[in-house]
Amino acid sequence: MSKVSPSATLKLTAKAKEMKSQGSPVISFAAGEPDFDTPQTIKDEAVRSLGAGFTKYTPTSGIPELRQAVCRKFEEDQGLKYAPENVVISCGAKHSLYNLMQVLCNPGDEVIIPAPYWVSYPEMVYLAGGAPVFVETSQSEKFRLTAARLEKAITPKSKALILNSPSNPTGGILEAEDLKRLGEVILKKNLIVISDEIYEYYIYGGLRHVSIATLGEELKARTFIVNGASKSYSMTGLRIGYLAGDAEVVKKIGILQDHSTSNPVSISQKMAVAALGLPKSYRTEVRDKFEKRNRLMVGLLSTIKGFKPFTPGGAFYVFCDISGTGMGSEPLCERLLDEVHVAVIPGRSFGSDRHLRFSFACSEKDIEEGLGRVAEWSKRNIKG
Length: 384
Ligand SMILES: *Cc1c(COP(=O)(O)O)cnc(C)c1O
Known about the structure:
Blueprint: H1 8-21, E1 27-28, H2 40-51, H3 64-78, E2 87-90, H4 93-104, E3 110-115, H5 120-127, E4 131-136, H6 147-153, E5 158-163, H7 176-189, E6 192-196, H8 217-221, E7 223-228, E8 241-244, H9 247-258, H10 266-276, H11 281-301, E9 308-309, E10 317-321, H12 329-340, E11 342-343, E12 345-346, E13 355-359, H13 364-381
Parallel strand pairs: 1-11, 3-4, 3-5, 5-6, 6-7
Antiparallel strand pairs: 2-8, 7-8, 9-10, 10-13, 12-13
Helix pairs in contact: 2-10, 3-10, 4-5, 4-9, 11-13
The structure holds pyridoxal-5'-phosphate.
Pyridoxal-5'-phosphate (PLP) is lined by residues 32, 92-94, 118, 164, 168, 196, 198, 228, 230-231, 236, 241.
C-alpha cells in the first residue's frame, strides 16, 4: 500500500458535490459515467429475476447464460470466437483488470502503460507487486502509442502492455494500421496485451472500433480483452465486467474470485444478459447523442483563451491542453471550482499536468453554461 495513491479525482468530485449540496450552482464536467438512465428492459429484468428468487450464490465465474451471451457478443461485434471457458464475469471491468494483474504479475514484472492513462492502471500494477513503465504519447500525435516508442520501453522484465482504445482520459483511438505496427513489436518481444475496450461503442467520425485481438490468431492468443456493462448500458452501479482470453489464466481468475469476492451480484448478471440482448440501435442512439455533445464541447473549448482541446475519436471526454494558461492542472481546477463553480478533473491524475479532462456525460445546456463561465473566467485571468 505504501506505493499506492488515493484517487485525486475522487477528492475533487467530493468537494464539488459538497458545494452543490450547500446550494452553489456547480456545473460538473467530472462525470466518469454516462448520464443516461439505465434502459427500462434492463430494469424490468432486475424486478423479474428478483421476483423469481434469483438471489442465491451463482457460479463464481458467472452464470453460464451470461458467459454464453458474452461469447455471442464477441462473435457478432468483432468476429472473435471464444468458448465460455475463455470468459470470466467479474464485479465490474475494474475488478476484471485487478484480478488479471494479480494473476499475471510476478514481483518486479514490468507492465507498459501508455501515458496519459486511466488512473487505476498504475495502482493495480503496484498492488500486484509489479512495476508500471510509462510511455509518453502526445496530443500532436493524437495520443497514439507508436511502435518505436513501445519497442524502446521494452526490457527483459517487460510482461504486458495495456491498451485502452478509445481512451479515458484522452479520447484517442488506435486504428487497424496503428495496431498492426504495435502487433509486430508485441509478437517479436513476446508481450501479453491487456486491451481495455470499455468505450468500444462510443466512437465518432464514422470510424469503427478495432480490437488488436482481431488482427490474427497469434495476437488473439496473447490478448486479454476487458469490457463490461457499465459504460455501454449505463449500468455503472450494477458492477458487471468481463474478460476474455487464455483459458488457463481465466481459470485462475475464477479461483481468485472463489476466495475473494465470490460471484458478481446474481441479479446484476441477469441484467447484463438483458443488456447484451438489446437491439444494436440502442448503442448507436447513445453514440449519436454523445457525438453531438462532443462537437459542441470541442467547439466551445477551442474559443477559450489558453485552452487547446483534442478532438476525441471516442469515449466521452475532451482532453484539453491548458499550457497556454501558464498554470498547473490542479491549481487551475481549484480556481475554476472556487471562482466559477465549474468542476473539471486535473490531468495530473492521468499523468499529464498540462491537460484538464472535461466529461461530456452531461446536458448540452450544462456544456454551454459551464464553458461560458470558463471563457469569461479566462478572459479576466489569462494574459496574452
Ligand atoms: C470506467 C472504466 C473502467 C471500469 O468500469 P467498471 O465500472 O469497473 O466496469 C475501466 N476502464 C476504464 C478506462 C474506465 O474508464
